[in-house]
Structure formats: C-alpha cells, structure tokens
Amino acid sequence: MLYYSGYTRRIGDVDEGSTVTDFLPAERARGITIQSAAISFSWPPPPPGSSPGTDTVLSTPPSGSHHTTPHNINLIDTPGHADFTFEVLRSLRVLDGAICILDGVAGVEAQTEKVWAQASSYQIPRVIFVNKLDRDGAAFGSTVKEVGARLHVWPAVCAIPWWSAEGRLIGIGDVVGLQGMKYAKGGDGKQIEVFSLQDLDSHDAKLAEELKKARTALVELLSEHDDEMVEKYLEADEDHLAILPSDITASLRCCTLQHPQIVVPVFAGASFRNVGVQPLLDAVIDLLPPPHDRPDPEVSLGSSGTKGGLSAFLSGKLVAAPAPDQTKTGSKALRKDKASLALQNLEACALAFKVVADARRGVLVYVRVYSGAIGRNAPLWNTSLQTTERAQRLLKMYANDAVDIESIFAGQIGVIPGLKFARTGDTLVSYTGVNPKHGPPAPINDLLLRPIEVPPPVFFVSVEPNSLAEEKHIKESLDLLLREDPSLHVSVDEESGQTHLAGMGELHLEIARDRLITDLKAKARIGRIEIGYREAITAASALVHEIFDREVGGKSSRAGCSASVAPASDGPLSPPLTSDQQQTQTFHLPDNNRLDIILPPSSPANLDPSSPTFPSHLPLPTLLPALQTGVQAALARGPTHAYPLHSTQITLPFNNPKILTDHLTPTTTPAALTSAARLAVQKALRASAEASETVLMEPVMRAAITVNEEALGAVVHDISAARGGSVISLDSSNSTTTTTSSTLSPNTATTTPTNINTSKIYAPPDPFASASPSSDALAHSNIGGAKTVIARVPLKEMVGYLRHLRALTAGRGTFTMGFEGFERMGGRRLRVVLGEMRGEV
Predict the structure, then answer these.
(1) Which residues are annotated as a binding site?
(2) Locations of Low complexity compositional bias (predicted)?
(3) Which domains does the chain have, with CATH numbers?
C-alpha cells in the first residue's frame, strides 16, 4: 500500500525485516507484528509538486485504480497474535473501518474469530482480503465458505482469483467492474493489463464465464439486503450484468455500514506477488466510512454517570442528571445556561489510545481527535486524572518517523510528545481559558469518552534487581512499561518482597522482558513464569474483635473493628433486618469478594437517645472508604497459602452501641480505622482456616482448539484425561449453528450471530478441486475435516500447550484461549500443585 501510494520507493518484506510498520528489532527478528504502528498516506497518490491537504484531480488514475481524487488514509497495522489482544483492542477503539486479512491456505483461524467479535462490539465496518493465493494449497472458494460458516456473515465476492492453466495466480477478476486484471509476472504490481468482459471471452473464456456467475451472485445477495439494488435490478430489465458498477458500489457501501454487519465484501490477491492491492485500496475509499459517517462517539459524564452521544453533548441536549438538592426550576435553567456557555469555549475533545516510550523523542501519546482541533501549545485538561498538561509539540507519525504539524483536526490521528501523566484510555479536552488547577467548568471537566477495556493478566514472572542500587531504576522502567501497555500488571509480594510482572501470555511476557532488559537497560533477573492462584475459605468464622491502639506521629490513635467472614456462596451471615433497625452498605470487591458494612438507622425519626451514632469527625464518606481499604488489604493474602482471597463475604457490624463506643473514639483517624479493619479481617480469616482448611482456586481458560478430524480423538482425550479439562462442544468448521464468538471472550459478543447456510454462498471453484458437485460441496462444507473443540482447561495445563498440540496434529492444530474465571481445585490437582510449591518432584 505504501509503495503504490508513493510513500516508499521499494516494497518491504516481512521475511527480510524491511517492512515500514514492523520496525521494532523484536518484530523483525520474529517476523510478526508486536506493536501497532500508525502511518498516513494518500490514495491515489497526489501529482508531484502538489501541496498536501489540497483537493487535486489526477488527469489519469494510476494503474489498477478508478479514482482520480486523492484521499487521506490513516492506516494502523495491528498484531495478529493472541498474546497481543490488547494492542488490537485499543486500535479498534479509534478506527473507522478495518480490513481483515485472511490466509488463503489456512482460511478463517481461531484468532480471526476473536478479533472479529471484538470489532463487532465496536461496530467497525469491515472488508475481507484473502491473501497468499499464490501459495500451494491456496483455496479461495473454501475460504469464502469458511467466512460464512465461522464469522456468521454473508461474503459478497467482489474479486475472484485469475488462475492460469497450471494453477498459478496471474491476476484477479473484478466482479464489480466486470473486467480481468492481469499482473506482469515478477513485476512490482504496477504493470496491469486490463481486459473487458468481451475481451475475456476470447482471451480466457473460463474466467469470463465465472465473472458472469460471480456478478449474478453478487447482485442477488445485495438485493436481499438493500432495497435500492432491487430497483436498479428492475431498471436494468433484470439483467445482472447491465447494472452500473457505481450502483453496485453504492449498494455494497450501504450493506457494509449496516450494524450489525451481515454482508462483508471479499477481495482476493497475493501481496507477496503484488497482486490485488490497488483494488483493495479503492475498496477502502469506496466502502469504508470517513469519520463523519461513523456513529456518534459514546460519552459519559463522570459525576452523574449520564451517557449519550458526543454530538448531543456538544449541542447541549445531553445534560448531567441534577443532584438531589438542586431540583428547583430556576437552578436548572441557571445550570443549563452555564453549561451552554461552557460548551462554546470547548475547542477539542480527543482520546489517548496509546502511549509509547521512544528512545529519541521521549514519551509519545497517540490521540484520536473526535471534535474540534488540538493546536500547538494548547493546554489539555485530562478529565480522567483531573490534571492539565500542555501540548508543546504535535507530530504526525509515519511508523517510526515523525513530522511536526501545527494542529490535529477531528477524525485525524496524531501524537503529542512530552505528556507526563496521560495514559491509555484517558480523555483530553482543549478549552479556551482553562484553569490549570481546577480545569474547565462543569460539565466539560467530567466528560469521558468510552474507555478501552483492559483484559486481566494471567501469567507472571518475578523481577529481581541485581542490587539495591538498581531498585529505583527498575521501578521507573516498570512504570514506563505499564504506561505503554496497561495489559501488563506489576504487584509486590509483601512477604517475600518480590516484584511480579503479569501479562497475557508467554510471548507477551517474553517481549516485555526483552524490552525491560535490552531497551530500558534494567539490570535485573527474571524468574520463571508462574500461575496466579487464588485462595478461598470453606467455613464461616465467628464475630471477632480487634483494637488498633498506638502512637502515630506523636499522637495517640485508637480504633477498633469487628468482622466475620464466610464463603460467598453461603449467602448473608444473618437475615437482612428492616430499614428501621439498620442499613447495610454493600461493596462488590475484586475476585468475587463482597463487603457488607452494617450501620445504624439513618432516619432521625427512628433514633432515640440511646441509639448508636458516629463521631462527628468521621462522616460516612470518610469512614466507608477507610474500612474498604483495610478489608482489601487483608484480602490480598490468604491465611494458609498467602494467595489473594476469592469468593469471600466479609461483614463489619457497626450497628451495636457497645461496638461503636469501644471502636470509635475522638482519637480515631481514618488511617487507624483502616488498620483496625485489616487486623480484624485477617483474624477472622485465620479463625476460618483453623475451623476448616482453605482451598486453592486456579485460573481456567476457555480454549477453542481447531484440529484435523484424524487427530480429534487424541486431542479430546488429552484435554479431558491428561489436563483435567472439560470439553464443552465439538463443532465442524462448516457448522451453520450459532457458535458465538463469546466462547473466546465473554465480554466482546454483543449480538447473536446470524445463521448462514453455506450451501447458498457463492464461491468460485479452486484449482485442482474436484469437479463433481457432491464432492465439491463436501470440500466447501467440511474443509479438510477440520473440527473446533471448545473446552475449559486450567491455565497451568495450557502453558506450552502449542508445542504439544502440534505434535498431536502433525503441525496442523491451532488454538486460542481467553480467561474465563477461577475454579476450585480438586484434591488430586491440589496435592500436585502444593507439592510443586514445596519443591517436591
């Protein structure tokens, strides 16, 4: 794409390590994309000497294209490996459209389904490019069938491969334009011989006949989903070939922009042989939407939680819900006037979707601007962190190169270097006359664009400095790594003092480790990969009391707390009381833990002189967070195995006059109350462990394993017998039943997949495929006998599983997995894991 647009003078190669967007040493060494890279170019390329940004018209379009007006394209190249799912997620968050590249030999792979579901959750319009059709075993028709069966969409074939008599790819057939495009053998893809349908009848009658079939199938498919195409079909006297290419393109665009997307345009080519790239670039302009055609970005107002569209907010229609004490009509009108005045001074709104630490330029923050324009030296208010920073420079990135620019306009992607605090997912606003300390007035200071969800990490390694002198440098390096990649997580083991670095998988941590030691020059030792277990109690404890009484900073500080714990599955420790006897504040903590704080009745009418009350210096907004902090600190380490607690219910009663008198005194501070809560919960956990042993819980993954039918039995036996997993379902790759993508990532599926009857999907015949209709249908419906096994397997058993799977399937098996939750270990597995922890073999 960069070569044909005139950005580069040579075509990069992944195998040679000469690509533009894969510029990291780790990417070039491994031949894969690890970090998403942004680059901008024009298609078609502007004439030499024209200034960028001006509307020019080419006298003749470049070879292989039908466009004459250059369009600006912002391209983000994302990884495809499952370990770098977050890199894909944060790129999808800011895209207007996407190209899904499929391997013409492998077809739709398991990771493709996962990313497809993620794109659906962000309502991203997509087109498909079937690549590598020059390789032996490439099957375009089979891949088209797989698109319908596994991605649950109707593939609209817009280009078909042009095979020679020997089965070699020599060009493509343009279904929309009804022409053949023959590429020069061994050329750079710019020498294209174009044949009309009439010329093809004499040059290659087989391709001409297939083009007619493909055009008929395309018009029939579009007519089912677009009423305009039905009218065009009738205007053309029901002649599928007489419909204008521009009408078909308009109908394709209409179907592509529908949500949920049911029809997906499919193109063909071989990038290694430089075949089919120009029609794909035309499809980006013709079918994918510009920023103003995208749905209104979703925003929320932080203090009130009001949600809506950005355009509605900017027009003053989206107003924060009023506070309970501000219900008078006059105050409402006053607030609305102030909000309208504030909106007039809002210059820009942008989302920071990526942070990169560059060795030469420092910290680079990638932003997508959704409204207005960010100018150089503009003060930016970070509504997520409530801080102000200044954009002293603005850059436009070209992969690893950058150019200074004056402003970043709405719909564009740019880079702001030197920001000290901005993180992935933060909302940045530019406001006229912003106060650096207090920010812009409400409601702008609370404006939040839809954040980027971070998947939980499940693998971790230990990071130990070589000496105490290196400790500070390592901490700073880890902080920088976390700011770059929020899917990494750093924690400190209080007992051992070890620092743990957690990530999404083995390769993810391997890359992070190389970056830490090689790029950031951290002198540290990296331990082996471990699994993050959880601990769960099995018995309820009695109510225990704990007093914290000591001098802090020369002042006496005393606080007490009572606590009881129980397994969360056992429900409340006591039946809920009526509102005139008590009120209960419930907090849902991480890892399925629940905190219930029982308070005295809040209504003054129900209070008598002997009713318990709180000290005036400890109002509820101060008391409740202090108790919650102490409880969370106690849950960080289990009483037996020192793993974080899971599925635990904690009850802190403060509705008893004697408890309040003993535990809360005039010298009680929030810090002392936090310590008392921590000590009380720890004591209750120890009491529970003494009554009944705690159990370990291990992370369980939901894996989708694609294998050939011959190895299915061995794989299923290995999962269920040797690895302690459970098989949920067995599906053929041609299954027309709804196999939702949520099996891989429960949080990404937002709509029910459409059932696709693969027998009704048009797909051109593949070279060397059987001409028998029955066997041909079988080849399409059950490609290579591929089966998909959906199973729940402990994460410990999936470490290094890929090597074992390849041995079982003669190298043809693949799998992907997503974190599902924690599950209690059985007795046998618990004994094995505890034995490994003690160093027993």
Answers:
(1) 77-81, 131-134
(2) 732-756
(3) 298-449 (2.40.30.10), 459-531 (3.30.70.870), 544-693 (3.30.230.10), 696-837 (3.30.70.240)
